[in-house]
Structure formats: C-alpha cells, structure tokens
Amino acid sequence: MSEIKTIEGVDVRGKRVIVRVDFNVPVKDGVVGDDTRIRAALPTIEYLVSGGAKVILMSHLGRPAGDGFDEKFTLAPAARRLAELIDAPVAFASDTVGADARAKAAALADGCVLLLENLRFDAREKKNDPAFCEELASLADLYVNDAFGTAHRAHASTAGVASLLPAYAGFLLAGEVETLSDMLDAPRRPFVAILGGSKVSDKVGVIDALIGKADTIIVGGGMCFTFLLAQGKTVGTSLKEDDWVVRAGEMIDKAAAAGVKLLLPVDVKVADAFAEDAATRICSVDAIPCDMMGLDIGPETEKLYAQAIAEGSTVFWNGPMGVFEMQAFEHGTRAVAEAVAANKEAATIIGGGDSVAAVNKFALADEMTFISTGGGASMELVEGKVLPGVAALRS
Ligand code: ADP
Ligand code: MG
User: Fold this and answer.
1) Mutate which of 323, 359, 382 to test ligand 1's pocket (most atoms within 8 Å of Cβ)?
2) Quick one: three-class SS letters along 30-59?
C-alpha cells in the first residue's frame, strides 16, 4: 500500500492550510471539559504555525440537526480553549463556509489560526456534497487531515475535500495509522490481543482479523458469555447473544486451527442484579447460577490473563473485562490494565473509547506505549477496513 504523505517538510510559509481536526470535545456552560482531543492536535497546529502558514481549522462537535447554527453545538468554546493552549492568535468564524469564514480566511496573517464554526451545522458535510467540498477547498491552498477519530467516515471534510487540494496527513493521524498498521503487519511476537467489552456482535470483525495475526487472544467482558455458551456451558442471566453462539463457536475452531491460543475465563464474579450494591460471589464458569449474571472476570482468570500478558512482546487491548464503571466490578479490568502496564518489554497499545477511559480511571495511561484516540476508527483499521479519510491521503 502506498505511503500516506505527512506535512513534514512541506513548505507552508504564507500558504492557507485547511486542517480537519477532531475538536469534538465535551462542553458545559460554554467551557470545554476534557480537552484531550484539542491537545492531541497541537503538534500539527504548532508545526504549521511555526512554519508560517495561515492555519484554518475545521471540526464537527456533537450531532446537530444540520440545518444551521445551534448554540448547543458551537465550537466557540473550543476556540477559546485552543487560544489558551497555543502561542498564536486564534480567530473564530461564526459560520463554516459563509461570508464570515471567507472574510476571516482571506484576512488571516502568516502564523495565525482561524477556527471555522461546526461543520455539521451544514447537512452537506455528512453527505460529502461536492459543492460543499468546493466551498471548503476554496478557502485554502493545502489540506491536512489530523482527525483520526473521524477518518472512517467519508464526509466532505475527511474525504471529498482531499481530492481538490494537495492533501497531507497531520502528525496525530499519521502516528495512529503507523502504530496500528505496524502492529498488524509486523508485530514483535508473541502478539497478545486482549478483547472485551459488551457484545460479540460489535467485535466480530476485530476478533476475526486478530485470529489471523495474534498468537494469543484473551477474551473477557460481556462477550465472553456467548463464547462460554458455544462451549456448552450455561451462563445464567449474563449478557448473551443467542444469534451469535454458532459464530463464536466457529471463531473458537478457527483459532484452534490457526494455532492461536484463545483464552476464556475460568471463573467470574456473578451478581444477582446489574447494580453496584448487588449481592455477588465468585464462581467457576462451570457453575454459574441460573439466576445470576457475570459482571466481571474472577481472580483465577485474572492470574491466567496476567501471565499471558506478561509473555507478550506486543500487547493490544480493546474492551473492558467487566462493568468497570461500577466499583464492585472493576477489579478484573484493573488487573488487566496493571498487567499490561507492568510489561515494560512490550509495545502496549490501547484502543477503544471505554478501554481508554478505564486506563485513565486507573491512572495508568502514562505506562502504556500508545493510547489510540480513534475509537471506531481504530477498530475499523484493526478490522482491515479501508478508512476513507486515510485512503484520500495515499499517494
Ligand atoms: P470499547 O469502547 O473499549 O471498545 P466496548 O464499548 O465494547 O469497549 O465495551 C464497554 C462496555 O462493556 C462497558 O460499558 C462495560 O460496562 C461493558 N461490559 C463489560 N463487561 C460486561 C459484562 N460482563 N456484562 C455487561 N456489560 C459489560
Ligand atoms: Mg465503547
């Protein structure tokens, strides 16, 4: 596959560079809460600013109706936050491709930044509408995509506009693609993949793809019960997907045929209700009571998984081991996070919204090699899908 071109080394001085960033941040009372996504784009923005470019930023925020301005989803708070984080003037346009955006883009001085209003105030963004792409492209000389989190969507700002201007990847997007592609194409072995989360149906693509690549696959979370059913066990009132039992059985067989170790829990923490204060106990997966549900992996499983994780030279983790949002069922996820963090020999890569939230909750993010910002985009990349926003940047 051809390389993606990054902006590194491109002469941007005096050029108008329109950059797709992911500023889809939480906002409350006009103030940005968690600004991780804004910070993640700073290397690219600062590189362009110090190179003397006129930097025009565009992003979506939330899910507005798409019929014009909606106060709830304005990017103005993101512009204010960005201005606090960078050493350059940050202007804000009250529209996306309208009169204000055009005037402010035209007046922009070298080394200055302009953020356009929410792309999704215009319904044409999500439709990848050709006229909207033209209007975005007309604001600039060059295009940069640094929004890895939306690279799996073929929208105007992520796909269409890339064919109208010289197009490059920003550092965040390039780093994500490179890390995840290298992990899949040339992992240091053993390659251990830990998969959890709620449903098998959400993760089949990822599991299938990894059966062809990993040496060991560790399964936890709600989806383990569908695998246990495929092994003929009973799982009480645990989360289960009856329509996926056969498919889970096929995956077990496929892993065995490929010589991939597939580890399933040997014990679980069961509860009499989906609640923090439920009555709980630990039981073997061969003895799950018919009126209880498994909400976490058990201590024997934690030991087994920690051992397998310690043996990995590449460790990829997606999906919590239990309902980690509740303290009563966070232990398994914490144990796995600690085991991954403790393996200093390995490249440790964390992907998926809730898995990253879990790692942050346990304050272990700094111990990992790479935390993917992608969510859905990371998973689609791991599944081997072509991401439209990435394909548009290949030479
Ligand atoms: P990610 O966002 O990292 O890809 P998922 O969205 O697939 O992860 O799954 C996360 C969710 O799975 C969490 O909300 C967690 O509570 C839930 N979960 C984990 N284990 C169980 C379980 N045993 N029963 C029900 N839900 C579970
Ligand atoms: Mg999730």
Assistant:
1) 323
2) CEECCCHHHHHCHHHHHHHHHCCCEEEEEC
How many residues make up the chain in this entry?
395
Protein residues within 5 Å, CB atom, of ion ligand 2: 353-354
pLDDT at residue 162 above 70?
Answer: yes
Q: Is the CB of 239 under 6 A from ligand 1?
A: yes
**Could you tell me if 325 and 362 are in contact, meaning their C-beta atoms sit under 8 angstroms apart?**
no
The Å distance, Cα 80 to ligand 1 centre, comes to 34
- Where does residue 307 rank: exposed (0-12), middle (13-18), buried (19+ CB within 10 A)? exposed
Tokens 């936050």: give the residue: 81
Q: What is the pLDDT of residue 332?
A: 98
Task: Find out whether the beta carbon of 380 lies less than 6 Å from any atom of ligand 1.
Answer: no
Any idea which ligand is nearest the CA of 228?
Answer: 1
Annotated catalytic sites, by residue? 37, 199, 353, 376
Amino acid residing at 110? D
Quote the pTM value. Answer: 0.91
Section 178-186 average pLDDT? 95
CA distances from 133 to 43, 73, 129 (A): 26, 21, 6
150-167 burial, b at 16+ Cβ within 10 Å, e below that, comes to: bbbbbbbbbbbbbeebeb
